[in-house]
Write a structure and sequence with these properties.
Length: about 290
């Protein structure tokens, strides 16, 4: 009976939370892992993928990805394929760890704090990483897309001890079915953040300084209505900001993952062309 209960609970969580896309991805390995933050006994690491013959004296763009999992679970390896691809195109790419409820008994606030800490750490260590601190891309899927978007939009949730004179705002956002609206009307997981939703919901903190953004969403996503993404785009453009919205017909939440080969290729190509338009990449996409 206990075994059945565990199976049922696991299945329930995978259906009710955006964690179907948070499965570990095997077959890729980062070039190195670096501790960027220590909280108590918890060490949080950046899983770094570097271009061939990369040197610390380089000044390459850098992409930092945050995994999905409903702020509850997930693995940085979800974005290993994306990191591996961008490294092959000349970008330093990082899959970041951050605190989650299942491991650290934390709330969404800590997820955002860690996301901001990661972006700040990357900028502070630009000369060691061989990156351009003015070409920082934040990306993520589902709740990880929320974390990425929150680094760019929200003013609250800065970790005590962080050097807030270093900006946590990335220069571009790459968002895969992000849960970036946490408001009371149609917002995802509003009950979890209802006491502070206005501070943590990226869609409610857009401004004329929000970085250029690409959003990729399936039309059959049961967690994020198309209307939510369209409203985000409209608000961005009302603020004079760029927001490219790509809709993928009949695709569900988590459609973009490496295991979904056709969708993976399509979304990575869209990401590549977006970054090329910003001058971060050159040439045609090489995704296979």
């Amino acid at each position: 009976m206990k075994a059945f209960s565990c199976i049922f609970i696991t299945a329930f969580l995978c259906v009710s939370l955006p964690c179907a896309q948070a499965l570990e991805t095997k077959g890729f390995s980062p070039d190195r892992q670096i501790v960027y933050k220590t909280v108590g006994e918890t060490e949080l690491k950046l899983h770094v993928f570097e271009p061939a013959e990369h040197k610390s004296t380089d000044a390459r763009p850098v992409a930092v990805f945050f995994f999905g999992g409903g702020w509850v679970g997930g693995s940085p390896s979800q974005f290993y394929p994306h990191c591996n691809y961008l490294a092959s195109r000349g970008i330093v790419a990082i899959a970041a760890e951050y605190r989650i409820k299942s491991k650290h008994n934390t709330s969404p606030r800590e997820c955002v704090k860690d996301g901001k800490s990661a972006i700040r750490w990357v900028r502070q260590h630009a000369s060691e990483l061989g990156i351009d601190p003015n070409k920082v891309i934040a990306g993520g899927g589902s709740a990880g897309g929320h974390v990425a978007a929150a680094t760019a939009t929200t003013k609250a949730f800065n970790e005590e001890g962080d050097d807030t004179s270093v900006s946590c705002v990335p220069n571009a956002l790459v968002l895969f079915n992000p849960v970036f609206d946490n408001g009371p009307v149609g917002g995802w997981s509003h009950e979890k953040v209802k006491d502070y939703w206005q501070d943590i919901s990226p869609a409610h903190n857009l401004s004329d300084t929000t970085p250029p953004t690409i959003v990729m969403l399936g039309t059959k996503d049961k967690l994020i209505p198309i209307e939510t993404a369209e409203r985000f785009k409209k608000t961005m453009e009302a603020n004079g900001r760029r927001c490219d919205l790509h809709l993928y017909e009949d695709q569900p939440h988590g459609f973009f993952n490496f295991g979904k080969s056709e969708n993976y290729r399509a979304t990575v190509e869209a990401m590549d062309r977006f970054l090329t338009s910003l001058g971060y990449l050159q040439g045609e996409p090489t995704v296979k």
